[in-house]
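Support case: user asked for a sample of complex input and structure output to validate their parser. Sending the pair below.
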Amino acid sequence: MLDHLIFGFSVALSLQNLFYCFIGVFVGTLVGVLPGISPLISISMLLPITFTLEPLSSLIMLAGIYYGAQYGGSTTSILLNLPGEASSVITCMDGYQMARQGRAGPALAIAAISSFFAGCVGTVLIGMFGPPIAELALKFHAAEYFSLMVLGLVAAAVLAQGDMVKALAMVVFGIVLGVVGTDVSSGRQRFTFGIYDLSDGIGFTIVAVGLFAVAEVVKNLENTETTEVFTAKITSLMPTLADMKASVNPTLRGTALGSFFGMLPGAGPAISAFSAYMLEKKITKDPSRFGQGAIEGVASPEAANNAHVQCSFIPTLTLGIPGSPVMALMLGALMIQGIAPGPQVMTRNPDLFWGLIASMWIGNLILVVLNLPLVGIWVKLLKVPYRWLFPCIFMFICVGNYSLNNSAIEIYLTAGFGVLGYILLKLECEPAPLILGYVLGPLMEDSLRRAMLLSRGDPTVFFTRPISLAFILVTVLLLITVIMHGLRKKREKGS
Amino acid sequence: MEKSVKNDKKYSGAAKRTIRSIGAVLGALLLIGTMVAPSYAQSYPDKPIRLVIIFPPGGGVDNVGRIIATKLSEALGQPVVPENRAGAGGNVGLEFAAKARPDGYTIVHSTESLTMSPGLYNRLNYDPVKDLQPIAQTAVSPILMVIRPDFPAKNLKELVEYAKANPGKVTYGTGGVGSAPHLGGEMLKSLAKIDIVHVPYKGVVPALVGMMGGEVDMAFLTPAAAAPQVQAGKARALAVLGNTRALLLPDVPTAKEAGIDNFVVTGWYGFLAPAGTPQDIVNRLSVEVNKITAMPEIRENIQKFGVEPVTGSVPEQFAEFIKAEIPRWSKVAKDANIPKID
């Protein structure tokens, strides 16, 4: 194992590979900062360039773009409530509040540090347990996925801040939005009103950017004073010792959750970030701080999404199964180099496998070195008068969302979700449970229907499969605790 | 003009002269522009060409399209810019191309979706035959039938026997309802008169994962997705649904060799232009594309994506092929009772 890693570093530390690693994470950071310009688009554009590179160099660069984007995505989330990538929606919730309180610096720094830690853990995990983990992940069938999703959604509704009924309504609304498009089981169109562009559903970036960023800008324009407030009282750029201490455990927990979900092909990093955030909120002594600028609410999801991204390389590298479209592109890049991806890559091309893993660690280090000094520059961005800043934000949103599919409908939809987000803001409904429902709902439906199809309509399949049963039991336990808690409160009030 | 006259006062004599000469050059260019406009076919192309790709980045049609676009740019002396317009099983991009201006500056890289859609949709916003002018086919991709390594049946014949003995028990996964692999599975049901259950997934890769994890017994997949797993022994290939064997897996028999005639399900990629694009431009593009698909290094790169390059595809023959494929797919979809999409 150690020999392998040392070998990997010896390959990855060549001047050429270091250079491409730097290029990759640098481009990735930029891509992450710009919403809509996804790693998928940038990697597919860069793919022809890699034909002439060494296989390892090209893979190092493309991987760098991918995880670099996760870093960059958190920057705009914290500064502008603008989620650059799907996985950074959660970072908006507390990161942006921290920025409003003049603590953008510590938020950005903690995001970078916890991501770095998670990235390191992910790298070690791939190196040590890659192949057995990948085999285990294959044991997750439709029934397991379904039970896991149920757990996730129940947890989201139960643990959301404020009104539980509102949270539940938001989750359900999110699910409804999620079913727009082609029904997987029958191939029929649902809620598309004959519009071709809706047949693949509504893009995640559209919903997230509309509900968070656009709504936020509109709200800020409502009263001009508040927008200038958080530029005035920027305190320190670096986190205090107390901040660091408060972030240690959340980072560890986020890393664990992110690593788990990352290994499952088919679960996006947003799920990791969400569950990490929900977990922190559940176990904290004072849940009301969440959503008000709690540093744990930045550290944990950031760690989770970065660990997820690293671990999602496991099924790709060890089984040759791409866990996401980006991974499919990476495999494409490998194939173009004449390397057949699949289980044999580890033994047939050890330099490639271990070199890439070592480069990921190096890349994460470069990202921290690159991002920490940038914190000062990013924070200065907040000093730009809002009347200049918000047209820029809108421009980036429009360009980014247009580039998703080269169609103007995406921009209209974003505007629509902006209006919806503003209405929800006024009704004091949190958009986060809606996003979760939107992400998990279709996955859940897909798993439910497939599980039922495979069991020929027998619902006991969810209880007879051990992993699935475990998830169901945790869900029930969670519901019981909440109900007991509610009853006790009522009794205390009564006496 | 008024403004520029006023501004002139501010400039020195030298600057004035420069401005005047720039103006003269611009004027001359404008004049030349109007003069050559009517005979643009000779000067084609004089601006970048948009290449619509009907699926998202990363798939075979995208990869092959981009490989050819790079060479086509060199050959034409103008950039050929890939633009992914995905959605509705490729129909978003096809409709866009069908309605684009037929001036040779918009072309589309399509898949077999073009010939399958009429049988799957009640209403298409374009006519696959009348609204699009075929240029050249670029690649074909036969569907591959793969099965779990621990499944009792060892070849296609045994599978058919097993399915006859256990009706409704064998499951097969595909990347989605109405995809070529799905129609392939339905074709097998009617040709071999067996009862097997279709399990649709959201994409080819989840279907592959489902088969490897033992969720479904077998899967109908593209060679690009399945070949690495077959080579590693994580899946067994029963048959290639093509007229010839697959380049990536030369040991796997065709369905005909394995005992079932007429069991052919082949995907393809090809370039088309909006109908009404000048014939000389269509011919020029066809010649250039065929030159590119004949280059050894390009053929090699295309093959790496698990598809087989096609050369010598002329517009007329490609058009005949499309016309013949549409009723064939429609019949399969109808026989399989696949509901039509509104």
